[in-house]
Amino acid sequence: MVMVSFVNGQYGYCEMVADCDKLIRTYPFIRGYVIGHSVLGKPILAIKCGEGARRIHMNGSFHANEWITTPLLMRFAEEWAGACVGDGNLFGEQACQLYRETEVWFVPMVNPDGVQLSLEGIEPGNPYREQLLAMNRGSEQFDQWKANIRGVDLNDQFPAHWEEERLRRGMEGPGPRDFPGPFPLSEPEAQALARLTLSLQFDSVLALHTQGEEIYWNYREYEPEHAESQADRLGGVSGYKPVKLTGSDAGYKDWFIQRFRKPGFTVEAGLGVNPLPPGEFNDIYARIGPLLSEFVRIQR
After folding, report:
1. Does the pTM of the predicted model rise above 0.85?
2. What's the distance, CA 9 to chain centroid?
3. Torsion of CA 41, 65, 123, 176, to 10 degrees
């Protein structure tokens, strides 16, 4: 089995690319795609597993300091592929049957520039160096950074009551967090995910964030009737709490629900303060793995 590989307690863009390559080479039935590029030109990768009629999507690392969501998704994809080869089970469900009945598109790292900034600081030659230092109040420590490299919060970028979110946030310009950008979908990372979603017309989506052990399933009454019962099922296998959220707009799952009137979920993995420590990865995955498996199962 290919193992998700932390390097010095971190899991950044290079580790994700290397693990995607290992997955595709080890399991030829997994396909890899480039769906766009970040501000700094890093390819935004997607991997596809499954060949069923139902098409769903999972993503991670919208927010830079929530990078642990990327290896969580990679571990799940790896375990599913390995179980398919061995005709085994994935959290109690026959893996090959899931593969035959569902097509899953993973985008493990929506925000590669931000993740690298959060983990490693400003890379040599970064053209945004001066702006980043100014936004970060002169500090070269970026572990609390959530935004992309231009200081835009990618999960406030989607055209779902975006103007109301901008007014609610009250951010006048770019920064480490909460700036929705100059207009919806101004950032190439958000554009890439929107294009993928519009092109593939997913039946359901799940955005993995940290932290809080909660499941957000609604958006302004646009969600279908069965969304709440699906959230209850996700909560039942994970112990996470389904929450009917209000006072939040312009997120990816908000836009998806409003645009398609289909189920969309934001899952807040783990507890504590971001960034969650990698030493908690296995404990977090013990609850996230069954949740992701149930998400695939209920879309069959």
Report:
1. yes
2. 20
3. 90
Residue 271 lies in a domain: yes
Q: What is the CATH number of the domain that holds 88?
A: 3.40.630.10
Angle between helices 252-260 and 188-200 (to 10 degrees): 30
Q: Is residue 181 part of a domain?
A: no
Q: Is residue 1 part of a domain?
A: no
Evaluate whether 41 touches 196 at the Cβ level (below 8 Å): no
The C-alpha atoms of residue 91 and residue 93 are separated, in whole angstroms, by 6
Q: Total domain count for the chain?
A: 1
Contact yes or no for 251/155 (Cβ under 8 A): yes
Alpha helices in the chain (DSSP H): 13-26, 69-85, 95-101, 112-120, 129-135, 162-169, 188-200, 227-238, 252-260, 281-297
Phi-psi region of 116 (alpha: psi -120 to 50; beta: other; left: phi over 0): alpha
Using one digit for the tens of pLDDT, what is the confidence trace for 88-136?
999 999 999 999 999 999 999 999 999 999 999 999 999 999 999 999 9
Of the residues 78, 165, 187, 268, only one is catalytic, namely: 268
Q: In angstroms, how far is CA 25 from the centroid of its own chain?
A: 23
Q: How far apart are CA 272 and CA 297, in angstroms?
A: 29
Whether 268 is catalytic is: yes
